[in-house]
Amino acid sequence: MTKTKNTRDWRAETIEKIREIITEADPEAVEELKWRGVPTWSHDGIICTGETYKSVVKMTFAKGASLKDPSKLFNSSLEGSTRRAIDIREGEKINARALKALIRAAVKFNQSKSQSKTLAKSPTKKK
Fold it and tell me: Which of 5, 39, 92, 127 is the most buried (most CB within 10 A)?
């Protein structure tokens, strides 16, 4: 149960919409509740979190600074070197197509890093 399940307001509805979009973009994404009930989606590493605040629902992409964002969805945490976030306010429509592309890019990035670590750990054959 997420923090938002207790109060069915616009924030809970927004988290539900985000959940649907993530599942459509990556059916293999795993959702866990971390850090006092914050929904966190992962696939070969964290994709993003969905935090609720009084005036926004914040999707924080763990490696957002490494992702291309041609639709300019990132509108928060822009100054950091690692994370990027999307603040969604009450009444704002989510650009599902662009968000799915960003989620898929995050998964692809995680997989590339995961593969690099696996290759680095592989024993080298001696002749």
Answer: 39
